[in-house]
Structures are given as C-alpha cells and as structure tokens.
C-alpha cells in the first residue's frame, strides 16, 4: 500500500483552535465537535507502512502497553517516584498500580521510551519484579495521550473477585500458531472441540471477534462471573480458550473458569493483537477495537476507517458512516431513534 503523509501542521493547528473554541463557547460546541470528529476520522484513516517492528521517520512516537500480575506491597511509595521519572522523560499515558500487579499504557519519543523500559526492568526500587515485563510496541504520528497519570487501584482490571489471584499462578495458555492449528483441524491436540470465549465488552465484540466465539454481551468485566455461571453448559466437555484484546482480562477469566470447575481451559497468550501479529486474521472476522485514537486495527495491525462518535463514543463502522442518521456532532446510527442500528441495539 502506498505511503501517505501525516496531516499538515496547519490542519493540526486548526483542530487545536477548534478544541479551545468548543471549551470557551458552549453555543457553538455542537458544530465545532462535529468538525473535530471529521478531522480525527481523517487522521485515523491514514495508512502507514506495513512493517510493524521498525521505526519510521513519520511515526516518531513509540507506544507501549504491558501488564503483569505480581504482588506489590508498596505502590503508594512508588507512585510519586514513577510519576517524576515519567515526567522527566516527557512521557504521557497511564500506569495502574495495585496489590495484584501493574498495567500500563505510555507513549513518547523513542529514546525516552527505551530509557523507561530499562528503568522499570532494572531499577532497584522495583526489586526485580518487572525484569521480565514484556511490552507490546507500536508507532504513531502523534502522542495519543494528554497527560501522565500514575494511579493506585484495588485491581489492575476490575473483576470484583478477590479470591482470583493471578499473581499467585496463571492458568495454562495457548499461543497463536497452536490455536490456528486447532482451528484448522477442528479440534485440539486431544481431539476435543474448541470453543472461543470472548471476555470483552459487547461494543468491542461488535467490531470483530473469532468465528463462532461465545459472546455474552457484557457491558463491563465485573459482569463476567455471573454470565459464566448462567451459561456454563456451553463449555462443558470442550476446550475453552478465553481471549481479549491484549491478554489481561482473559488471564483472570481463565483462572475463574478453572476455579468453578470447568476442566479444559486456556487463555490466548497475548490476546487478539498477538494473534494478529503472529498468524494474521485466520478464523477471525472483522477488526479489533483498541482504546486509543485509532479505534480499530485490522489483522495487519493497521488502523482502519472505523471511528467513534464524538458525542456518545459509540463505535461507527464504515457502513454506519454512510447512514443518513450519521451526522458528526449531532447524531449517529447507534443513537438516532429512527435508525435500524439503534433498534437492533435496544433489542439486544
């Protein structure tokens, strides 16, 4: 695919001015938000070179995500020190610290991000807890985060099941090539049928998921234990593979499944994004929703034309953007009372 250039500095300046205007002039906010939404959509649809592991001059911001379930007793003492180091490096993003571990999303210039990786893996402050922390990397034209936050939380991903302690031991995992081989054969290595269990929220699933995956239409992860109890018959006698975007939710989910007596359970190592990276989109339909300005990635890990409506944050597909009920800054098919999309959503 031919390379396209980044938005002109003039366009970026215009969007900043519009954002300030929306804050200062409530009367014009709706129209201004519509223009900003259009500009963001155009930026999200830019295609970049397919090489995912090499730095490119126009993509100067390195984005990192990582998590690890590990016992942390002194997160409150770490917080100001980690915040100060990130600010000194000019990084932005969010780092969650909880007794069960760490979950982070940060971005910044390449040298500074590399320095942060070395810091968190080797600094004596952390006592070697993160020496093996594995990062997912991607490059972008712009900084996706507004500020740097280090937060103390009860859980790094909220399930509200304190007995589930991934920091004390993981459920078995399956890597992408092995899972694809199971799909291709129609069963796992023991001859059992394989069922994929989507642990994500309903609006994420609607963007894309594995073929024939179980989807219980949850709106938040803390609903997962209840819906599993109600539907456990769907998984009896099968090999269950829990999955999510990057691995953190399915790691807790797999432990919960084992705890309630479902015997043959795996988590997808690295989630959907790692699967895309290693085997592409085989046995997967659609895109993968991500929680940043890109909105969705295709199986080549490239941003797509899918966007989010500026007002209600509903996901707006390419087809939805063609709908007469889609008016940036005013309404989208998911919210318009006369839209079939809205009617379907209410019925679900």
UniProtKB/TrEMBL annotation:
Q: Name one GO biological process term.
A: tRNA modification
Ranges where the Rhodanese domain occurs: 190-284
GO MF terms listed in the record are: oxidoreductase activity, acting on paired donors, with incorporation or reduction of molecular oxygen
Which reaction is catalysed here?
A: uridine(34) in tRNA + AH2 + O2 = 5-hydroxyuridine(34) in tRNA + A + H2O
Q: Which PANTHER family match?
A: RHODANESE-LIKE DOMAIN-CONTAINING PROTEIN 7-RELATED, THIOSULFATE SULFURTRANSFERASE/RHODANESE-LIKE DOMAIN-CONTAINING PROTEIN 2
Family to which the UniProt record says this protein belongs: Belongs to the TrhO family.
**Full protein name:** tRNA uridine(34) hydroxylase
Q: Give the organism the record lists.
A: Candidatus Paraburkholderia kirkii UZHbot1
The gene name on file is trhO
């Amino acid at each position: 695919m031919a390379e396209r250039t980044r938005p002109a500095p003039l366009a970026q300046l215009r969007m900043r001015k519009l954002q300030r205007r929306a804050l200062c002039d409530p009367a014009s906010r709706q129209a201004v938000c519509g223009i900003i939404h259009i500009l963001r959509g155009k930026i999200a649809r830019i295609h970049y070179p397919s090489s995912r592991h090499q730095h490119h001059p126009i993509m100067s911001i390195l984005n990192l995500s990582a998590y690890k379930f590990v016992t942390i007793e002194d997160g409150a003492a770490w917080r100001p020190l980690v915040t100060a180091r990130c600010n000194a490096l000019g990084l932005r993003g969010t780092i969650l610290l909880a007794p069960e571990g760490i979950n982070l999303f940060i971005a910044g210039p390449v040298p500074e991000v590399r320095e942060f990786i070395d810091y968190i893996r080797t600094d004596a402050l952390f006592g070697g807890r993160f020496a093996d922390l594995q990062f997912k990397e991607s490059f972008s034209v712009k900084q996706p985060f507004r500020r740097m936050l280090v937060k103390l939380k009860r859980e790094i991903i909220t399930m509200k099941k304190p007995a589930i302690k991934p920091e004390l031991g993981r459920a078995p995992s399956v890597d992408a090539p092995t899972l694809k081989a199971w799909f291709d054969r129609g069963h796992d290595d023991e001859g059992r049928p394989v069922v994929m269990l989507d642990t994500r929220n309903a609006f994420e699933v609607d963007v894309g998921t594995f073929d024939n995956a179980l989807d219980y239409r949850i709106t938040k992860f803390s609903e997962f234990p209840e819906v599993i109890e109600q539907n456990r018959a769907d998984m009896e006698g099968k090999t269950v593979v829990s999955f999510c975007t990057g691995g953190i939710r399915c790691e807790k989910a797999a432990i919960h499944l084992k705890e309630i007596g479902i015997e043959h359970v795996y988590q997808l190592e690295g989630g959907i994004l790692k699967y895309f990276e290693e085997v592409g989109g085989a046995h997967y339909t659609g895109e993968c929703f991500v929680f940043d300005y890109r909105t969705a990635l295709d199986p080549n890990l490239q941003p797509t034309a899918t966007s989010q409506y500026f007002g209600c944050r509903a996901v707006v597909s390419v087809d939805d953007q063609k709908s007469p009920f889609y008016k940036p800054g005013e309404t989208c098919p998911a919210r318009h009372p006369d839209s079939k999309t809205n009617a379907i959503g209410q019925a679900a």
